[in-house]
């Protein structure tokens, strides 16, 4: 069993890193530890966690910006924002049920993983809303980059680099995000019975319209769904939502007569899709999350299912595919072959450690990009003590 370091200050984090570097002691970096099952297994002598770095460090509702220490629970951030009628626009997911983990999602984990929900098609990813970071690198140095406004970066944009680095370059100690107001209401159009190609065509028309769609998903028949459902979400002031729903119904008349889910019912459905909910019960299956061009989504999913048994659903208008497959090398190669053929990036979100150690968990990089990744890792973490091998073997 590895030891756990829980520093309560940024300076204490730096001291631990300096000592670990001197001892050549690998560290597993963690926040709330709710996503520990994503990535290759990390062989580390100790765990360094941000869970005691808690507290909102700044909140300026009028400026639409919030900052907090990295270990601050995401729920605390969302509660503080909700009191002022605001939210994190990119809809951060909660994968505890999918991964079978406990703990508490943290705001630092949101930034480190750069994972975003259905609203990404309108609001962008977590990385796009992240405007400032503080972190401790592998030298034991405290680094600050970005600030409180979007145009406050000079030189290297380390903010975007740290977003999605999965703790391989440093331990985030503070993050600053732009936020947006919570809309007055929302509604979801539900079209029934469309196959994958027709559904993605409908979603593409909706996303190409001027009606500001904030959710576009398709759930095929199977795994508890007796009828395929194609979902389009609209948010905003109530008169605007009503008008845009009517216009979309007219524009998409060829795809059927949709039902309408009001805000609360629709919100619960979108949370489930955000968190991988339709796949949670498939406990013996590997779960993959694949990003691609929306138009390529149906063919890519079909390419995988032609080789292995599985079930999938689409988010981001077809640009994000969640798919369950057998948990073996053959299925993994089928996923990789489909992404090579149709264009895309696949991440293994859930599997036993043995499989995650044996295959590529994140999309393999061409050698020129892998070389750049190695050089970046060396600059930030010269002795390779942070999450060694979590994203790619050897770095």
TrEMBL record:
SUPFAM superfamilies per the UniProt record, alphabetical: FAD-binding/transporter-associated domain-like, FAD-linked oxidases, C-terminal domain
Q: Does the keyword ATP-binding apply?
A: no
Domain FAD-binding PCMH-type: start-end pairs: 1-182
Any idea which GO molecular function terms this record carries? catalytic activity; FAD binding
Lineage top rank: taxon? Bacteria
Metal-binding listed as a keyword: no
Q: Which UniProt keywords apply?
A: FAD, Flavoprotein
Please report the name of this protein according to its UniProt entry: Glycolate oxidase FAD binding subunit
* Organism, as annotated: Saliniramus fredricksonii
């Amino acid at each position: 069993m590895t030891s756990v370091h829980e520093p309560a200050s940024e300076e204490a984090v730096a001291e631990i890193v300096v000592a670990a570097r001197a001892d050549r002691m690998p560290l597993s970096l963690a926040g709330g530890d709710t996503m520990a099952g994503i990535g290759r297994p990390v062989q580390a002598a100790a765990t360094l966690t941000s869970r005691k770095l808690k507290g909102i460090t700044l909140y300026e509702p009028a400026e639409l910006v919030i900052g907090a220490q990295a270990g601050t629970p995401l729920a605390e951030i969302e509660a503080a924002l909700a009191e002022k009628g605001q939210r994190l626009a990119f809809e951060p997911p909660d994968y505890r049920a999918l991964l079978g983990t406990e703990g508490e999602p943290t705001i630092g984990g949101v930034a480190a993983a750069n994972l975003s929900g259905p609203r990404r098609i309108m609001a962008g990813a977590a990385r796009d809303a992240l405007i400032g970071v503080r972190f401790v690198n592998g030298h034991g140095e405290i680094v600050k980059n970005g600030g409180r406004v979007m145009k406050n970066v000079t030189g290297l944009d380390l903010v975007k680099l740290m977003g999605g680095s999965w703790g391989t370059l440093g331990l985030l100690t503070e993050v600053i995000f732009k936020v947006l107001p919570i809309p007055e209401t929302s509604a979801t159009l539900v079209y029934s019975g469309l196959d994958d190609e027709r559904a993605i065509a409908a979603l593409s028309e909706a996303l190409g319209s001027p009606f500001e769609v904030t959710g576009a998903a398709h759930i095929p028949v199977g795994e508890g769904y007796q009828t395929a459902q194609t979902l389009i979400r609209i948010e905003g002031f109530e008169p605007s939502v009503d008008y845009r729903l009517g216009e979309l119904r007219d524009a998409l008349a060829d795809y059927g007569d949709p039902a309408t889910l009001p805000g609360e019912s629709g919100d619960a459905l979108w949370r489930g899709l955000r968190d991988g909910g339709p796949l949670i019960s498939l406990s013996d299956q590997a779960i993959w999350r694949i990003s691609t061009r929306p138009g390529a989504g149906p063919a890519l999913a079909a390419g995988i299912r032609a080789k292995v048994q599985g079930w999938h659903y689409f988010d981001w208008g077809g640009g994000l595919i969640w798919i369950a497959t057998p948990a073996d090398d053959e299925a993994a190669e089928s996923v990789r072959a489909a992404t090579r053929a149709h264009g895309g990036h696949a991440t293994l979100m859930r599997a036993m450690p043995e499989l995650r150690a044996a295959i590529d968990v994140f999309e393999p990089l061409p050698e020129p990009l892998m070389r750049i990744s190695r050089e970046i890792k060396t600059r930030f973490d010269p002795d390779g003590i942070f999450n060694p091998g979590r994203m790619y073997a050897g770095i």
